Fold:
Amino acid sequence: MTSDTLNQDRGRLRGRPVYVVDGARTPFLKARGRPGPFHASDLALMAGRALLTRLAVAPRQVDQVVLGCVSSGPDEANIARVVSLRLGCGERVPAWTVQRNCASGMQALESAALDIANGRSELVLAGGTEAMSHHPVMLNELMVAWLGAWGQARTVGARGRALLQLRAAHFKPIVALLRGLTDPVVGLSMGQTAEELAERFRIDRAAMDAYAVRSHQRLAAALESSRMDEVEPLYDGDGKLYEQDDGLRADSSVDALGRLRPVFDRAIGRVTAGNSAQVTDGAAMLLLASADAVERHGLPVLGQIVDSEWAGLDPAQMGLGPVHAMTPMMQRHALQSDDIGTWEINEAFAVQVLACLRAWSSDDYCRAHLGLAHGFDPIDETRLNIDGGGISIGHPVGASGARITLHALKVMQRDRLALGMASLCIGGGQGGALLLAREGGTEA
Structure:
């Protein structure tokens, strides 16, 4: 099937066509136990500046800025507005921030696309950013209550009694990153939900580690062949240059990964740091436009966002979210697996992607959970995450949805493909997906 056979009126983005002009991202920088060299707003600023400069679009020409971010810093409230003003968009350009956990960057793209489709905007800068190394370490409630009492103590005696109440428990910190990666409803960390999928689909440790090695090998090959041209170099305040994603382990092997201990179930678990996405800092920004804006500004077109979908499911099975989000779009447009030229399914965990592949083609799963008569044909893994994914590139949670969308479009351009799919699982039990098209692309 080619892109011109799709009926956009079947999807969520009814109305005017929505074009992606181009995009840029920063290198994804692995968190290494201390705050990284850039805050989230710095990363988005540099990605946005590189993109607009390359396109010769003045910041004041955009109608709005939409940015996904899970946890911005204390000096970055409504981080989209901070970035917009620092970019030079001016006081009159509105900006707003969205948060849908791991799909925040994708939510920003969909929000921008909806405004273009319904005629509210013509040219929108949208994407996602996250500096996970800067996620805060917080005081616990005991210490917060104690500080409140201390603030009310007016006499020397009252302050002395307050000091005597301090215990070691008051000083136990809350690591926001770890707390945020735990679902408060089912009481499971994201890694524990991955272990649930490993058990459900009987995916063994060797398969997970082999998938992780492949992710690193594919990223290494992409860098060797200069297939990551959306990455813009960064300089920090000391003049140090960051040119590419720095979590790559080109020498990764199944034997080496096999020596790592499980993280989330020490006794019998299978999920390790090596077969999970890396904790990372990074940003990705895209410029979306209407047909009128493309013509008026003489802009190129990378591709089109045709449709979008969000789905909910059991939070304990959250890793299967892509299956639930992609299915309605496949049905709406009468697509088969082989119609999609390139697939980007975010690699939160190796087992999570492998579980999605099994559920996708499982008659039992699709009948029981998706209301289908049978499963889809298997996804051709030579079309899936062909230049690596979150395991090798990293997963800055607010940015990944924008990154995988941008890269899917880049692959479509490079290989002259008509259709692409970008999808993520979302902590809390959701999935998100975008269906992408490119005029002039050939059938998959």
Observations:
- The two ends are 8 Å apart (CA to CA).
- The chain has a mean pLDDT of 94.
